[in-house]
Amino acid sequence: MNNELQNNSSSEGKVINLSIKLLLIFILVSWCAMIVFPFVTLVLWAVILAVTIYPLYYKLLNLLKGKNAIASSVVTIILLGILLVPTIFMISAIVSEAGELKTAIVNKTLVVPPPNPKVAEWPLVGKEIYKVWASLSTNLESALVTYHDQILEVGQRIVGAMRSVFSNIMMFAFSIIIAGVFLAYSDESEKSTLAFARKLVGNKGNEFKDLVVQTIRNVSKGILGVAFIQFVIMGLCFMLAGVPLAGLWAILVFLIALIQLPGAIVAIPVIIYIYSVKEPVPATIWSVIILICGLSDNVLKPLLMGKGAPVPMIVIFLGAIGGFMLSGFIGLFTGAVVLSLGYKLAGIWVNYDNSSPVIKSE
After folding, report:
1. pLDDT by residue (tens digit) across 163-202?
2. Which domain holds residue 240?
3. Structural domain count of the chain
4. Does residue 130 belong to any structural domain of this protein?
5. What pTM was estimated for this model as a whole?
6. What end-to-end distance do the CA atoms of the chain give, in Å?
């Protein structure tokens, strides 16, 4: 009887001791997670950038005879230049144009040209745009008073959007620097990642690590690559066709392509404008060219996203779209990676043989 009581007491003591240890571990892990949480997005983008550009970094590393620090520094500087140089020019242009606009309004020298009568023929919004435009061109001061609230609201939205864009640019700049560090220690990073993957799925760790890497690169090529290609070719078309604010329209094409909508959405209002200011023949030629460029993603995306993919292209595509809807821009990558891993695990489970397990611990 005493032995049973002692055994029960000993068991209860072990349970309490284990519970306290687990609770302390949970508190420690939760605390660490809360400390790291503000940097999660930053680090995720750094990982995505490092994985995406590693093939180029590896070629440069071979050219520099294995000098990791120099190779990673060169890649980091190039990426920062690609990101920050256009940003500086854009900020300079915006500040300059805003200053000129303010001076013109204060000195009452701002002149708004009258609208083309064809503007009123634009579907849905043509008449309203023509009315506001005509009002601004005939009596600017009166129109500014009449539409003061609307102009203020639009201005606040534009300022808010610009703040968001610039904060994201700064976040990407820091992510590029962190990605450079990851590249400099790429061998150690790969070993750590592989060890973690093997802890999770045993001897399938290497396969799952390769799956994550390939999925990230495919999404980069299939989504970011296509968006950038459309941004360049449609931006050139807008400039050559004489479309006002061609750069802003091109940026809109890039953003539309990122959320997986066709660039033709942006092409439609541009085509309407071209027909309103050009003769029918050149307007038709430019419209066909711009429309073809706007629909080019239907050809480019399957080619780039599906090339060398370890899972069907539709899995990556659905993961990217669902991830974007759930988590925003970062979800394009996390969604594709998670769904690809889920697809692979489902395949392992379906083909699992009790007599010969697929996943074995090492």
Report:
1. 777 787 888 889 889 999 998 888 888 888 888 888 877 7
2. 202-354+356-360
3. 1
4. no
5. 0.70
6. 44
